[in-house]
Design goal:
This protein is 37% helix and 16% strand. Helix 9 runs parallel beside helix 10 and helix 10 runs parallel beside helix 11.
């Protein structure tokens, strides 16, 4: 095995960012670039934003091309790797396997049998077994983390805080099963738990249920809460919010959204605040434990 160049010890040399969809990979890249560190993007075809990616040094890859990614990252002198962005768990049949990935299939098959955190943690271990160091996006771009308190002009009410507390309790309980990172609670009633569909589709489900008359809480009542799982590998797949999350909360008729401060990422914070204020909903960072 060829060792990475000595100039790429931890915290030095270019940073490899393996990019899924959404605006988070570019937010991280912009923040790291401002710090003076070189960034090389490895975007997944069909997921990453082509126009945005091409403003950086980059190499397109397909899901399943770990050998190509490893070779190119080493060639760029990268040792540290960030894995970030939207990527719905692919079916094994849809993955374009190269020879390196084929040799890893027994490990990947075992990883696919668990939840998302189980799968992503195994992917991180595969990178590390190849001489890379997987780092959390928040460790190279700490400004993307949500802090305690409201992000915009609106604040959660006492009723909202009660719903947030119930949601956090629920997430802590189900998290050990490696289930989703988000729930919707209104007046103490659990309306939805995130599963394979992701947060945006869960919120659309709430909006549809409201239109169909299946949700009895009035418009402007209820919260979306996102939190990491208790055993979460915080280098990968931290809960994230962005402008689309705010739009989904508004369409679902909720009062706002809350995330665990210091353990959740915000993309395009200025736009998040603008849209939340326009919709008169709150966006807040809360401690791991909250009370009404």
């Amino acid at each position: 095995m060829t060792e990475p160049p000595t100039a790429t010890m931890s915290g030095e040399g270019p940073l490899a960012i393996v990019c899924g969809g959404g605006s988070l990979p570019l937010a991280v890249a912009d923040a790291v670039k401002r710090s003076g560190r070189r960034v090389v993007l490895f975007p997944f075809r069909g997921w990453a934003d082509r126009a945005a990616v091409e403003s950086y040094p980059h190499h397109w890859i397909a899901v399943g091309q770990f050998g190509r990614l490893r070779r190119l990252a080493r060639g760029e002198g990268c040792r540290d790797v960030v894995l970030i962005g939207t990527l719905v768990r692919p079916s094994l049949r849809s993955i374009r396997l190269d020879w390196t990935t084929l040799r890893l299939m027994p490990r990947l098959l075992r990883a696919f049998r668990g939840g998302d955190d189980h799968l992503l943690s195994e992917v991180a271990r595969i990178f590390e077994d190849s001489g890379f160091r997987v780092v959390g996006a928040h460790s190279v771009a700490p400004e993307i983390l949500v802090s305690v308190g409201p992000l915009g002009a609106n604040r959660p009410s006492a009723r909202d805080h009660s719903d947030i507390a119930r949601a956090l309790d629920l997430l802590s309980t189900i998290g050990r099963f490696d289930v989703g990172q988000a729930v919707v609670v209104a007046e103490g009633h659990v309306l939805a738990i995130e599963a394979a569909e992701g947060t945006d589709r869960m919120l659309k489900r709430i909006a549809d249920l409201r239109k169909e008359g299946h949700i009895h809480a009035p418009t402007g009542v209820g919260v979306l809460v996102k939190a990491p799982k208790p055993q979460q590998d915080q280098r990968v797949d931290l809960p994230a919010i962005g402008p689309a999350t705010v739009e989904g909360v508004a369409r679902a008729g909720l009062a706002g959204l809350a995330v665990v401060a210091g353990s959740a990422i915000v993309a395009e914070p200025e736009e998040v605040v603008r849209r939340a204020d326009a919709a008169k909903i709150f966006v807040a960072g809360v401690p791991h434990a909250t009370s009404p």
